[in-house]
Design a protein that fits this description.
The chain has 284 residues and is α/β, with parallel strands linked by helices. It contains 11 helices and 13 strands.
Length: 284
């Protein structure tokens, strides 16, 4: 059975048991808050970042790992493994995938496969778990890549944003538009398309209504198929638990883990945001 290692980046959110089981190396993105640069999930855990981010008025910046950072990880892992599968945040949202591609070409393109998950957060996590399960089943590198790419196609991420402050301070939303939304208590619904792009999908008045709308979209996407799900939140545990309860009322008996979103994701979506990833798991 080939020995294949999985690499990801710090935007990948998944339960700790899955992280311990499947992830050989996590390459951190960089995040700057309060004028200080940190390595995501190395220098700061989630709770520490949430505190700093709130103190900064939800203003931070992030940047991708360098080619050299990926290269050093790949070189180390290939000493003890036959191959590496590297699963990352959507290329349309970060340059991490491009850094990984360049590093793979430099180190050993025949033994390193870089996968653009076209997802964020727990969406990356579900794609990574599919890769890990394919490795556990004894598949060769091409088969593992095929199973991972199938999970990319079959996974969607749905989200709603509690506060627009981070979008305004990051220059992604006009202040006037945000004020109007806040006055009406409008909470936008967000879906990540098949190529990893961010699309708004309407809005609801009130956060709980928005979370219910997210659950409805998940139900429509599942369309009666067997599914796997995971929820992440950016210091919004109450919203995450509310969404979990709604989903369990629709998918009785399903195991739906809830995890904290990392610093980079929180930088762009803001505190309180809740997201769910759903993977349709029919025959492949």
């Amino acid at each position: 059975m080939p020995k294949i290692a999985i690499v990801t980046d710090s935007t990948c959110d998944l339960p700790e048991a899955a992280r311990q089981r499947y992830v050989a190396a996590m390459v951190p993105l960089h995040v700057t808050v309060g004028g200080v640069s940190y390595l995501d999930r190395v220098d700061l855990d989630e709770d520490a970042f949430y505190r700093l981010f709130a103190e900064s008025g939800q203003l931070a910046q992030s940047s991708q790992p360098s080619v050299g950072e990926f290269s050093s990880v790949y070189e180390r892992l290939l000493k003890d493994n036959d191959a590496v599968v590297s699963v990352h945040i959507a290329n349309r949202l970060s340059g991490a995938v491009q850094s990984a591609y360049l590093a793979a070409e430099t180190v050993d393109p025949a033994r390193i496969r870089v996968i653009d998950s076209c997802k964020v957060s727990v969406g990356v996590g579900l794609v990574l778990q599919a890769a890990g399960e394919a490795i556990d089943a004894g598949n060769d590198l091409d088969q593992v890549v095929a199973a991972t790419e199938a999970a990319v196609r079959d996974t969607r991420v749905y989200s709603t944003i509690q506060s627009l402050d981070a979008a305004v301070r990051g220059g992604r939303l006009n202040l006037h538009a945000a004020r109007l939304a806040n006055l009406a208590d409008l909470k936008p619904l967000v879906v990540f398309d098949d190529e990893g792009g961010v699309q708004t999908d309407g809005a609801r008045i009130g956060f709980q209504r928005a979370l219910r709308a997210v659950a409805e979209r998940v139900e429509r996407y599942a369309a009666g198929s067997p599914v796997r799900m995971a929820i992440s939140h950016a210091n919004g545990p109450e919203g995450a638990e509310y969404l979990k309860e709604r989903l369990l009322s629709l998918f009785a008996g399903l195991d739906i883990p809830v995890v904290k979103a990392g610093a980079v994701i929180t930088t762009h979506v803001g505190l309180g945001t809740v997201a769910v990833a759903v993977e349709r798991r029919g025959e492949r």
